[in-house]
Amino acid sequence: MTALSHHRSGTGAPLLLIHGIGSRWQLWQPLLPMLSLHFDVVALDLPGFGASPLAGSSFPSSSSLSSSSDVPALADAVEGSAASVFPASSAFSGSQSLDVSAPADAVKGSAASVFPASSALPESQSLDVSTPADAVEGSAVPVFPASSAFPGSQSLDVPAPADAVKGSAASVFPASSAFPESQSLDVSALADAVERFAASVFPASSTLPGSPSFHVAGSSLGGGVALELGRRGVARSVTAFAPIGFWGPISRRWCQASVTGARLLGRLARPALPPLAATAAGRLVLFGLFFGHPARLDPATCLADVDALVAAPGFPAARAAFAGHRFRDPGALPDIPVTVAWGSRDAILPAFQARRAAAALPTARHVRLPGCGHLPFSDDPTSCATLIQTTAT
Fold first, then answer.
1. Rounded CA gap, 195 and 164, in Å?
2. Per the count of CB atoms within 10 A, which of 207, 226, 279, 345 is most buried?
3. For the ranges 34-38, 146-150, 339-343, which has the lowest average pLDDT?
């Protein structure tokens, strides 16, 4: 079994925390002081994310991006991809296209076009469960204009954009890189890896023979994995924050496009991010898509999260696997405590998907987190920790 990087703290009933795509175990840090008072908490890095390698890979946990010998080839790939993603008419015009000395104003201007204040998800809008799916479809237009990798009439409701994203990603992450195309990182495969890992850190002897050995909480992709573990009957309780799998075709492609765009922006604009992340306004522009209150974020943590997103070798395979995932079979979930929570300002998996979750899991507790974004843990750590604790007890 490939060892998974993890952080362990606290005493009590075993609790496993699973992050989402492009993230790392540190996502849960705002909750750890509270959870560690009641649980033996293990926050892990999924295979291909954070410091965990892909199964069977031989590269270091920080990925081949840390190797100086790879820098020229990666720079060429990024520059080529940038030409299609950020054409000359964008904020990076002429000789300023990928010059690391270009001023932060250029990046700020580009970010404003990618996440404009007038988009379908303004700062003041609350995405409660009554928000229509049309807002998501409409928001795709300013994020990926016709001049970008999605030309002409290829909006997010047709298969072509997925090919465009895949093509763009292929130029940035060529097949010769450290992460193989055949590596499966769908929810089932990730649940297999987490289940094996949990068996090693939470021995079955700690509970009644044959009974589930741990509680689990997950975010986004990790929420989908957490529900899968509960469905299989290997988890004692499940708390899922904005889990994947309750989307339709449009909202699923929006999620894929959003996280891909964030990753490309992080890679291309990385030299200019520190001064932007140092200001509350800059954090709002850069991270407002993921957090309800990005101004509260620690700048250093923001930059470390960006680096983890960019460097994650498991990102392409996990993102591609979204296309085949829909929640359908509850399995053993009706027999255990389950809470599904959604931030009212979630712009990645908008909160109207909570209605589908409620229909699919009628025996679960469904909770709305007012003012919270897709990643609610820094927005309202007390409420998030309390939900996990009350679900488990």
1. 34
2. 226
3. 146-150
